Amino acid sequence: MPEILVLYHSSHGSVAAMAHEIAETLAFHGAQVRLRTFVAKEAHDIVVSKQDLIDCDALAFGTPTRFGMMASQAKTFWETTSDIWLKGQLIDKPACVFSSSSSMHGGNEATLLNLSLPLLHHGMLLMGVPYDVPELLSTTSGGTPYGATHVAGMDNSSELTDTELKICRALAKRLFTISNKLS
C-alpha cells in the first residue's frame, strides 16, 4: 500500500480539520499515512522533514489562504527543497492541494493554484476534484475543481460542512487510487 504524506499548516484549525479528514480517508482505504505540519503547535504535531517528502509515494498539501497565497511557513519550507528538486526525487509522485479562507471570495482558488506551483516544479502529478463528484456542482461553501476548500467565516468558527467533508474525502480517495496504481 502507498505511503501518503499529508502536509499542512493551520492557523485556526480549519486546515487541520481538513488534513485529518483527508488522512482518515486515506487510512480507511489502506494507505499508510504520515501526518506532518510545518510548525509544531500541539505536543502531538510532527514537523515535516525533506526525508518525509522523499519517502512518500504521494502528497496532500494544504494551508490557509494568505491573500491568495500559501502560508509563509509552507513557503519557507519549500524554499529549502532545491536539493530534492535537483535530484528529481519527487518526479511522478501524485499530489493534491487543499485550503481554507475566511470568506467565499477570500482567495481559496488562487491559493490552491499557488500551492500547486512548487509541486509542479518538482515534477509531481497534480490532481484536482473531477466533476463526477456531485458535491462539486452543488456546493454553496467550499470545494473547487483545483482541490478541496473550506469557508471558515470571518471569525473562523465555521465547521466543515457536509459538502466540504465529502469533497475532502473524494480528493483523498482519488489520491489513494492513483498512488496505489503507481506504487
Automatic annotation (TrEMBL):
Q: Is Flavoprotein included in the keywords of this UniProt record?
A: yes
Q: Which Pfam families match?
A: FMN_red (PF03358)
Task: Write out the entry's keywords from A to Z.
Answer: Flavoprotein, FMN, Oxidoreductase
Signal sequence interval, chain numbering: none
The Enzyme Commission number assigned here is 1.6.5.2
The main enzyme category here is oxidoreductase
Molecular function (GO) terms for this protein are: NAD(P)H dehydrogenase (quinone) activity
- Decide whether keyword Protease is in the record: no
Instruction: Indicate the segments forming the Flavodoxin-like domain, all copies.
Output: 4-176
Family, similarity comment: Belongs to the WrbA family.
Name of the protein this chain belongs to:
NAD(P)H:quinone oxidoreductase
The organism's taxonomic lineage, starting at the top? Bacteria, Pseudomonadati, Pseudomonadota, Gammaproteobacteria, Alteromonadales
